[in-house]
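Reading a protein record of the kind used here takes only a little practice. Think of the row as the fold of the chain written in a discrete alphabet. A record is reproduced here so that you can trace the correspondence yourselves:
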Amino acid sequence: MKRIFLIVLDSCGCGELPDSAAFGDEGSHTIRTCVQTGDLNVPNLTKMGLFNIDGIGCGEAAASPAAAYGKCAERSAGKDTMTGHWEIAGLISNVPMKTYPDGFPQEVLDRLRAASGREILCNLPYSGTEVIRDYGRQHLETGALIVYTSADSVLQIAAHEDVIPVPELYRICEQAREIMQGEYAVGRIIARPFVGTYPDFTRTPNRHDYATAPFAPTALDYIRDAGMDVISVGKIRDIFDGHGITEGNRTQSNDDGMGKTIQIAARDFTGLCFVNLVEFDSAYGHRRDRAGYTRALNTFDAQLGALLPQLGDDDLLMLTADHGCDPAAHGTDHTREYIPLIVWGKQVKPVNLGIRTGFSDIGQTVLEALGISGEGLAGTSFLREILFGARET
């Protein structure tokens, strides 16, 4: 294969994992929730075999699927973005990343005050849109940082762009990244700029993530070290702290992400285009917006129809997720779910891939398709199962 397009529909899980009850997620099923709205219209995903996946239990199965299809169970101890993506790329995280359900300890706050020269507001788990509504006016009056967290391993800092210019906010987040190491380590520090006047504040596209680096080389490093391209779209570069990335493309929305992906598909390159569509998670899953999530899937399906004609004989398209975020679940957290797996290409047989025992099978398949050994990484390639004329071993 020459080009592989790996698109992560962030949080688009397809049913509870066997251990979901241990995470408080028993019964979660992101895709089924969208089907139950009665408004889901995804003809391309349906034709590819989304509703043929073993045990998906919703939607209308295709009589003759056009793609290989299956689902993957998570081996890592978590249900967050970084853990999911790292596992896709061949790393199993046996210890979950640290979270702060009661806010950050005083020592962290004191060090952040000293480093930034600013006071701190909030210090609680919060919705990103609600926190600027509840603390935005006080922030405008005082210039204090709005510091908050979530169910993820994350420290987020929100600031109005007229009060703390974006470059200064980025510097503060870099200082926070230095502080949140060792015993206080979190997966990501996120800058969350916003604009507007009370109570009509809105977040801007100038978000920036400062992630901890992967604990070992991933499939992305293997591809780059083989002299091939690793083109990231969306927050992929941030998730891997830039490791293994040869070109980064920031996005403002799912639409922007798919638009950039379609543009990249019109280019000549050899290697991987790795895409994250974050709005499924950030705009709809966490906000428990069933109608919005459903509309976003409908829009993606239409954009998928525009992407497919751009793919050539030696291209491979892989669609998946990184965890669930069922908009019908309680609370605002991610949900512990299987992730769907759809693989389409002109050389791909429409076979049932069943239930894979790790997200890392995806990364191993990408590597084998590019002719790169995945030795040292987790997972088992399914490439020989899906290619016409390939002999299974």
